[in-house]
């Protein structure tokens, strides 16, 4: 006798239709422009169903017809593609001294990016939340003026984010147990779009998986090279966050029990020997201080300054020990170095790769490549915006023919 | 225009039916005994479809009717459950000096387990393959005499197994680049059941996920405590093997760059400071030597022998450093210690847990519990048999009404 409601999810009509809408949408995202017949033949859905699903998605203004195909026998087919124009997906990254917003349309085309300074480490959390909400409001209002519906807002945080969007710990911001999801919903007066809060490395990994040079690589790890070092782990094509969402903290794996003290209070964390602080060989607290220092290091390395090259080799070896942990444990296809590792990549990559191969038991490091990110410092914010699209693609569709109201006019 | 055949998989009639067969089968596995009406109401499939799917599964002899429910209003419903009897799933574990076979029926009930000695480290690979095939043949023939169809054979190997079932490296068996999958298929004369080859820790993790005390825990890691230390990683309810299948090699993560030399040739691997060799504080090569030594250690620890307790504390701390890597990186809900760690658990667990909590940045180790396995040394073979059932549950169904021929009578 059945007593519980667990088990396989019911596959009733609405579910089947939602699944099929999602199948059609993802198919068009990958293969547009294409015809209804193309969709039917490739998805196995029958033509009447495809026509109905396409009509539904057009009613939601997510698709548009773009004329006829001429390369076919018989009647020319009407071609369809995603209609990016009516929609926007907003990603915001909170960093120690700046906020970044990246906005993309439904097709994933970047509409614009804003950056503003933000004394994140020096203000109380409540003020920081106001600043983030203020930026979000400006973006949403601009979208509203342009007639674009906001599909969602996703916010990247450099810290431990739980599965409910709460920030459990963000050492570099001085945050602890902050309900960022709830605070943002309230500050934005319970908007009609979904809000998601996630660790920055996780969103950056999602950006690489969707937009990067290695997009579509099913087993991929992104390493942030900011003040902290964090990992975003994609396995079998999906971001893996662990039971409570706290995975990816490779920066705090103990590499050297006799090493330096970390800002987290522990000793010999990977961050202390392979983070940007170890590259600069001095205590730094803000990116504003780092940028010119990195430029200096690059110049010295280009001049083959022996002390600089030795330091980069040392950091590269330590980073390689961290990458070898990933390699032995997860056998990813690619590990992507982001942030300030990117300008240093010409010197770091060969050392990291060699150390990883030496310390991985699988021959040739199990096929692992180590590469530099091509997405720049916007990766986390871009990935945040992309995750909003992921939500849409997996069935969180905008309603039919609604008009979005600017937030400022709400009660 | 569509030029490639990638994209969402076609959802044609056969696929939909296969998916629905699988939904019904899994529902019955979790909820039996249940009626056709129960299945319809809980899966959302309509009653006619459910009746047809149940008839199909009964034709394959996978289900049976077991009388009527009396606890209902109206007409009594015929109750259905899995019919374990006509089928068997075979798991074999290859270890350094023994082979284990565990056989379960379709319902996952254990039919029997065999263990035979096996000089795995001392014979050429070809002889080892013959021994494994011989054991498999005996099991299959016994099943044949009992009228049970073999649903599949899965073989656990202590080493790096690629996604095609080839053994890339098994240091303790002295194997390198062995096509175990192909060799077994040939030795068994291309049998009519599927064969799978997989790393032992992966199968043990699958056993914990299906049969263990923490079954159903979506984020779970199993650590083998045999001569080697390996991890099987389950994230979001699925075994994660990495790009080439070489994940889980935590035993070869470098813990101490100044540590002892490992059998893999590297220095300071976790195995060298937290494996059973470190517990025994002497070089051992075969389990036959280990068993009585472990018994001695347990006795000494029970007598509170200071040297023994100090050694277990040291090993526990090192193991805790390994578990903290898992914890920081993957945030699992539970890490299960298997093999020889189990009898030592009373002394190891508190130290491992404390060290893990101390070295994990997430508060309270992100909710991680460290526990001893309850499945014993058969875990890998049991998990192998269970993986055969996983294959069936996800649609690799036995054919309708075929009779299985004993292997020995084939050409």
UniProtKB/TrEMBL annotation, chains A, B:
GO MF terms held by the record: DNA-binding transcription factor activity
HTH marR-type domain: residues covered: 24-64
Entry-linked Gene3D superfamilies: 3.30.420.40, Winged helix-like DNA-binding domain superfamily/Winged helix DNA-binding domain
InterPro entries: ATPase_NBD, HTH_MarR-typ, ROK, WH-like_DNA-bd_sf, WH_DNA-bd_sf
Assigned protein family: Belongs to the ROK (NagC/XylR) family.
Record-linked PANTHER family: BIFUNCTIONAL UDP-N-ACETYLGLUCOSAMINE 2-EPIMERASE_N-ACETYLMANNOSAMINE KINASE, ROK (REPRESSOR, ORF, KINASE) FAMILY
Protein known as: Transcriptional regulator
Organism name: Sinosporangium siamense
